[in-house]
Amino acid sequence: MKLTVYDISGKEVGSMDVDDLVFGLTPNRAVLRQALLAQLANRRAGSANTKTRGEVAGSTRKIRRQKGMGAARQGAIRAPHHRHGGISFGPKPRSFRQALPKRVRRLAIRSALSAKAGEGELKVVRGLDLEAPKTRAIKDMLSSLDLNRSALVVTAAANRNLLLSSRNLPGAKALAADYLNVADLFSFRGLVMTEDAVRRTEALWGGERATKRIAPAPEAVTHG
């Protein structure tokens, strides 16, 4: 599969061959849904807490005698149907974490990248090297690539100048290829990747790692 390469002004400057196992798959919708739900569930703190009738403050004394009052029977004031009483079946701290097999997570990321490439929302950029933080440069680049709604900018390694340049733009986020995830790929309409980021992505999720259960780990990228 070939992807067109652009410069930061939006002009075509070439093309590059990419791994079909990463950018040319038929997206697996079921796996994408499973991976997204698992990631969102794992973000939940699970710290909601309510008190039962045994935990709220108040006396356990019976409010009134059982018979002879012409009124309904009542127990302690801490019962759930009383004001300031305990909560019946309320939330308690719990973990919402969902385990996701490694191969499923990898397939989900490859499916999301393939979907972006298939829909024309993936742009490969050459020369995205900022000597200093400059928000205007990122804004102009996204505008020239027709990515005015929202965009995820991915580099091979963490880039502080790019991070500082994009964080003030609404609908833009900078990310290293090692941290690509389904939630971010779904949250942004466009995807901008440098040529090095494409190769790093192929090393992480393509080749043998896409077909074998156990494959050699790719070489680490030094984060600047």
How would you describe this structure in keywords?
224 residues, alpha/beta, 2 domains, 6-stranded mixed sheet, 8 helices
Give the SSE layout:
Blueprint: E1 2-6, E2 12-17, H1 20-23, H2 29-43, H3 102-118, E3 122-125, H4 135-144, E4 151-155, H5 160-166, E5 172-176, H6 182-187, E6 190-194, H7 195-205, H8 208-211
Parallel strand pairs: 1-3, 3-6, 4-5, 4-6
Antiparallel strand pairs: 1-2
Are there runs of 5+ residues with pLDDT below 50, and where?
none
H/E series: EEHHHEHEHEHEHH
The CATH architecture name of the largest domain reads 3-Layer(aba) Sandwich
In total, the number of strands is 6
Average residue-wise pLDDT: 93
Termini separation (Å)? 30 Å
- The main sheet orders its strands as 2-1-3-6-4-5
How many separate domains?
A: 2
Backbone shape? elongated
Count of DSSP-assigned helices: 8
Structure description:
- It is a single chain.
- By secondary structure, the chain is α/β, with parallel strands linked by helices.
- It has two domains: 2-44 and 98-211, Ribosomal Protein L4, Chain: A (3-Layer(aba) Sandwich); 46-95, no CATH class.
- Helices cover 33% and strands 13% of the residues.
- The protein is built from eight helices and six strands.
- It has a six-stranded mixed sheet.
- Helix 2 (29-43) packs across helix 3 (102-118) and helix 4 (135-144) crosses helix 5 (160-166).
- The radius of gyration is 27 Å and the shape is elongated.
